[in-house]
Amino acid sequence: MYSSTYFCFLHFFFVLIVSSSATAACDRCLHNSKVAYFSGDYAISRGACGYGSLTTSFSNGMVAAASPSIYKKGAGCGSCFNVGLVFPHFLYLGWISCKNATLCSKQGTKVIVTDLNNDKNTDFVLTRSAFVAMANKGKERDILRQGILDVQYRRFDGNRIPCEYKNKNLTINVDESSHRPSYLALKFIYQGGQTEIVEVDVAQVGSLDWSSLNRRGNDAVWATSRVPSGALQMRMVVTSGFDGKWIYTKHSVLPANWTPGSMYDSGLQITEIAQEGCSPCDEEQI
């Protein structure tokens, strides 16, 4: 059994991680920036997050590469942003917002971060389909000719949830690089809410001997070479409120004979909203 001192340490540790992430990200702030688009579809399956061919199942390929401050060394993989028209300030709830009302529609489009963008001139590079989806009817060619658009953006806050996957639970993809029983690498698909996963542990079903996974490099993959035997249960910490929240699976997530490339339903739906404080913001400059 773990001592109360151990759990107090974990609580402090995760508060520190989440607080640092929130301060650095400042997701509630309104930012002035630019967005561009990929000229080819090859970028969809070659993203730095490591989703590979799974990317095409995310919002019909409506995905984007994000700047390092949004990508967060892989922690931002899977986060959602909306692209649309600028709203009056008091209604502004968190869009990437095209400033050109002549070209851009009110509907906008949602994009999911699947790649890293190192271009210092733009915070996002969208797929061509996501970029065109911002256009007013009949303005598709005009918006493509622009190449780069001036925008304002921030993630949703309040009671708005940017990532919603109706009828889909958080799904675990066993990465192709895994090798049973000595190496396990996981990717999380359909992560809802406005959260980041900051800790992942696995254990044999019914055991308290948890094995921690580490984020592999700067992508969306979590891995361990200390793989428990048998069917596996899982727990994780996600950003929630101003703190971290433990989430446990209620049953075995991975069978004893798990295989690389397979998908497994966690039975969980994550809907938490991270409440971040950031100051000063750009909003006074708008």
**Total of DSSP H or I helical runs spanning 4+ residues:** 4
**What Rg is obtained from the alpha carbons, in whole angstroms?**
20 Å
Shape type = elongated
Give the spatial strand order of the biggest sheet. 14-13-10-11-12-9-8-15
Give the overall pLDDT as a whole number. 77
Architecture of the largest domain, according to CATH?
Answer: Sandwich
Report the order of strands and helices.
HEEHEEEEHHEEEEEEEEE
- Kindly, what is the distance between the CA atoms of the first and last residues, rounded to a whole number of angstroms? 54 Å
> How much strand content do the residues show?
25-35%
Query: What's the CATH first level of the largest domain?
Result: Mainly Beta
SS-based class: alpha+beta
CATH superfamily of the largest domain: Expansin, cellulose-binding-like domain
Largest sheet: 8 strands, antiparallel
Oligomer: single chain
CATH overall fold name of the largest domain: Immunoglobulin-like
Number of domains: 2
- List the uncertain runs: 1-26, 85-95, 156-161, 282-286
The strand count comes to: 15
